[in-house]
């Protein structure tokens, strides 16, 4: 796999902090591998929204701090998680798990990430329904899973004392933790991860500042409809970011007869 160092152009200690506001929003300013950057450009992603750069630039996030963020649908939440996931995999040489609630969206995400990250040697496989790679997690860099499959994978890693192979966990649709049927499973999964991350963080507490610690595990959670944000961030010891930004603003109108008010 290629090595990359994803840095924030908004960091006050970085010479790129002198870039103009528009230049800071350029995806090319974030140190992505050329082949990955080309894939994003071909998909029409040339610039970040201001909120995405602000979220990535929260203290400690690029260095492995947990992150919880909430933004409306279509605001670009996925890009933030993808960049952090790619950074962790390439820099730390570890594995990542991307958790989605449903098989259909998990499969779609798997195919998308295979296209985006395959050029830098990142192996993306799906663990959903009856699907799973023949080599299991050993043959995978990024495992795209449903909640149930992710829980099984983490249980197996804990039993085999291999959980230190994981460097990052991304939970999409984090509001599912409140689901009456499957929420308990996601809560149990996150509880196990918080315990593991606290233990791993203690073991890697002497890592140099601003260097990604390979012994820690980063938890990223996102949703468009997250209640109790402060409570969740406190539970996961995570940085918190919220925005109401929408690429296309919504307008609420009232139709009265033939008039729209």
Automatic annotation (TrEMBL):
Keyword Transport included in the entry's annotation: no
GO molecular function, one term: nucleic acid binding
Alphabetical UniProt keywords: ATP-binding, Helicase, Hydrolase, Nucleotide-binding
InterPro entries: DEAD/DEAH_box_helicase_dom, Hel308_SKI2-like, Helicase_ATP-bd, P-loop_NTPase
Span of domain Helicase ATP-binding: 58-244
Protein name per the record: Helicase ATP-binding domain-containing protein
UniProt organism field: Scylla paramamosain (Mud crab)
């Amino acid at each position: 796999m290629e090595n990359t160092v994803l840095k924030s152009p908004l960091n006050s200690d970085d010479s790129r902090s002198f870039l103009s506001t528009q230049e800071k929003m350029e995806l090319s300013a974030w140190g992505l591998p050329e082949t990955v950057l080309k894939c994003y450009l071909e998909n029409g992603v040339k610039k970040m929204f201001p909120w995405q750069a602000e979220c990535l630039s929260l203290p400690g996030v690029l260095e492995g701090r947990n992150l919880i963020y909430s933004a409306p649908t279509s605001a670009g939440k996925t890009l933030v998680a993808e960049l952090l996931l790619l950074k962790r995999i390439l820099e730390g040489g570890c594995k990542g798990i991307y958790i989605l609630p449903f098989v259909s969206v998990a499969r779609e995400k798997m195919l998308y990430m295979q296209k985006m990250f395959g050029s830098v040697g990142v192996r993306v496989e799906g663990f959903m329904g009856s699907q799973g790679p023949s080599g299991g997690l050993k043959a995978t860099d990024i495992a795209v899973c449903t909640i149930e499959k992710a829980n099984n994978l983490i249980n197996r890693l804990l039993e085999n004392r291999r959980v230190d192979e994981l460097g990052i966990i991304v939970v999409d649709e984090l509001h599912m933790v409140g689901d009456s049927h499957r929420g308990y499973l996601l809560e149990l999964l996150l509880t196990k991860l918080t315990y593991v991350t606290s233990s791993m963080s203690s073991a890697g507490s002497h890592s140099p500042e601003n260097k990604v610690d390979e012994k820690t595990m980063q938890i990223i959670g996102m949703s468009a409809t997250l209640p109790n944000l402060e409570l969740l961030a406190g539970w996961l010891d995570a940085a918190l970011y919220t925005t109401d930004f929408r690429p296309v603003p919504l307008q609420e109108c009232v139709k009265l007869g033939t008039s729209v008010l």
